[in-house]
Specification:
The chain is an alpha/beta fold. The chain is built from 9 helices and 10 strands.
Length: about 240
């Protein structure tokens, strides 16, 4: 057992209702695929990512930010008229480098807009889970809320539950030794859609493998607000 990074209260909440209840430093978790994707987008050179609640708000913001890139999904599929879907394996670096990304999804970004009582918001995924734990350790907030957004914010999803448990294990100084096996096991218990040949156009198998990578990015994404709405800012360790 290691020395705990954080000894304060950690609440695991779920879905849109959980986001509404979140207090303190809030981590909105969406492993498949929204917040894994946002990490990859920053890694590929995106200048700025703006999470947005509705399609209509996203399009209106697009009019206000010339040259912005539209990325998003509803029902998992790319929104008609958008540049890309919510898929880390299909958005090339040359498309995002130096661009402002407008990102709307049916789970992750809905958690952000509903976390109205949080004192601070981070996005959460396996690909930067250790960086999230380190950030919380440095901030030492009064309390932490881990919100598992699940399927469309209305039904629990095992990958988000696993991510929350992994982050808490790091905070408590008891790292989950079987995290690699548990993440890989999602292939048959919650991520079968990534391996269905008839759904590859919506859920490429490559997305699964990118999203279950752990601790590959040494930064967190902190959600702030400005005169245009929410902005997800990269904060390096």
């Amino acid at each position: 057992m290691m020395e705990p990074l954080y000894t304060g209260p950690v609440h695991t909440l779920r879905l849109i209702e959980g986001a509404k209840q979140a207090r303190g430093l809030c981590v909105i978790i969406d492993v498949f695929r929204a917040f894994s994707l946002e990490c990859y987008l920053y890694h590929r050179g995106a200048a700025q990512i703006r999470p947005v609640g509705s399609v209509e708000e996203t399009l209106a913001l697009h009019d206000r930010i010339p040259g912005s890139l539209l990325i998003g999904e509803r029902g998992g599929a790319k929104i008609e008229g958008f540049d890309y879907g919510n898929s880390p394996s299909t958005v090339p670096a040359e498309a995002v480098k130096g661009r402002t990304i407008l990102h709307t999804t049916s789970a992750g970004t809905q958690g952000i807009v509903n976390a109205v009582h949080a004192s601070e918001i981070l996005t959460g995924s396996l690909v930067n889970a250790r960086a999230i734990a380190g950030y919380i350790a440095r901030r030492q907030p009064q309390e932490v809320s881990l919100v598992c957004m699940g399927y469309a914010g209305v039904a629990p999803a095992q990958e988000d539950e696993l991510c929350a448990a992994y982050i808490e294990s790091l905070l408590r100084g008891q790292p989950m030794e079987d995290i690699a096996q548990r993440a890989a096991a999602l292939q048959t218990s919650g991520a079968a859609h990534f391996f269905d040949p008839e759904r590859q156009h919506i859920y490429p198998e490559a997305d699964f493998h990118l999203c279950i990578r752990r601790d590959v990015f040494p930064f967190v994404l902190r959600v702030e607000q400005d005169d245009l709405g929410f902005v997800s800012r990269r904060v390096d360790e």
